[in-house]
Amino acid sequence: GRAAPPACGGHNVCRLLARRAHGFYARDAGVAHRKNLGLLRKIMCQESTKFKNVWTTHSASPIAYERGRIYMDNYQCCITSIAQEPRILYQKSKCAKSEKIEDALLLECPLGEMLPSPSDYKASLIVLTVQNWLLRLSADSGEVLEKVYLAGSCCKFFRYLSWDTPQEVMIVKSAQNKLPAAARQAGIQQTVLFYLAVFQVLPLSFIGMLEINKKIFGNSVTDVAVSNGILIVMYSMGLVRLYNFKAILEQFMEQPYDLGQEFNWNGQVGVVGKYPFGLPCNIKITDTPPLLFEASSLENAFQIGGYPWHYIITPNKKKHKGVFHICSLKDNALAKNGVQDMKCCSLEPDWIYFHPDMSGRIIHVGPNLIKVLKLKEVKNHADQMEIAEDFTIVANRENCVNNSVTVTASGRVVKKRFTTLDDDPEQETFKIVDYEDELDLLSTVAVTQIGADGRAHLDFHCNEHGILLKSIPLKESWDVTYSHEVYFDKDLVLHIEQKPNRRFSCHVYQMVCNTARDDD
């Protein structure tokens, strides 16, 4: 006889995932959350739903935003934006210049892990001070939970924080070491360019510190970065080289050390992470590591993504600025239709990047056009990929007439001596494109100069098809000559702008559901 059909909920992975996505398994911890986010998206995109400017503040110092928290006064003041009206979470006394914070990262508790301290289960802020202290602060109170002194005898200028693996492995990078002019004139050679300190987070633990040395990596190194287990080294001539960072840590680790452990440093006994000894440089690269990959690109612009793996570069000549090549990481083959060139005539260049939704798609943004591209197999050539257009978003320039020749009322022909730029302020121009992962929405900010004022609106598009779902006008004027940041976080829109004389402003908009007319 024939075997019985598999029971509902059998072992077909695709079927299980599809049913889970539709919420069939009520005991799945993510089901309720996914349903709630789906409802929030529907409510937010309703015509009757508005976004109201509920709060505005100004500052003489830069303003930062992280996950519902607004930081001002060099992180001394924290304001929650989640409440009906933003309110102060904590306000610390003004710090001395020696305690100035250089960089910060928000640290969130990992799911499903046992942590040593109750405070580890709450969000915290890791900050780097000008005096080389690494502090972990409570995100809700500003209380110092942990402190580590970084700089020993080897390095005095740690300045940058970044993630190798988000929320797991953190990199603390020094400023580039440069000898004083007098030392250079005396013929003293500086071979160490950068120091990198590597930490595991929650619990905070020291992995090691290494130096980027000219003798190993070459004289023309201009910068380094670490991302997803890859050491990225950039050179002055546009060359980018990739190395296996995890293999470097394993191969060249002289001795592991733990924070708080005593150790001998040049004949003196010190404590790891304590003043004045700081951290030992316990990873000594003595030979050039195996090269994973290298490419030459204008201004070291280099990105990896897509499936199968591809990379994006600009040919390393100034005449190719604005031209992007999409190539296979496997064999460097240029994808079919892999040369992307919008041929923009604009002051601000177009930009391109792999879509952050992990779909493998590519977003190419020009002054008046956003292209979402996808990789797909060439028909009858399974080993070759081509770039195809998934959808486009076009700026609203219906009323824009840009004729080079006009005829006056008297019949006189007038020819323009110049061509209007693609990003002319009087035409609607895209300034920001972002992705809201929890609501699966693509957001765009477009700006038009009207007289002396710039008017901006934030639009929400379906991430799958690019359909416009919602448009939110921003009430404040937008000055295109200064920098702007716009954050879209669930039911919150936040606009941070820089103004003349290094003044900063923050405008908070919150979602308001009201079927009645509201002129506010």
Automatic annotation (TrEMBL):
<dbReference type="InterPro" id="IPR031620">
    <property type="entry name" value="DCAF17"/>
</dbReference>
<feature type="transmembrane region" description="Helical">
    <location>
        <begin position="224"/>
        <end position="243"/>
    </location>
</feature>
<dbReference type="GO" id="GO:0080008">
    <property type="term" value="C:Cul4-RING E3 ubiquitin ligase complex"/>
</dbReference>
<keyword id="KW-0472">Membrane</keyword>
<protein>
    <submittedName>
        <fullName>DCA17 factor</fullName>
    </submittedName>
</protein>
<keyword id="KW-1133">Transmembrane helix</keyword>
<feature type="transmembrane region" description="Helical">
    <location>
        <begin position="192"/>
        <end position="212"/>
    </location>
</feature>
<dbReference type="GO" id="GO:0016567">
    <property type="term" value="P:protein ubiquitination"/>
</dbReference>
<keyword id="KW-0812">Transmembrane</keyword>
<dbReference type="Pfam" id="PF15802">
    <property type="entry name" value="DCAF17"/>
</dbReference>
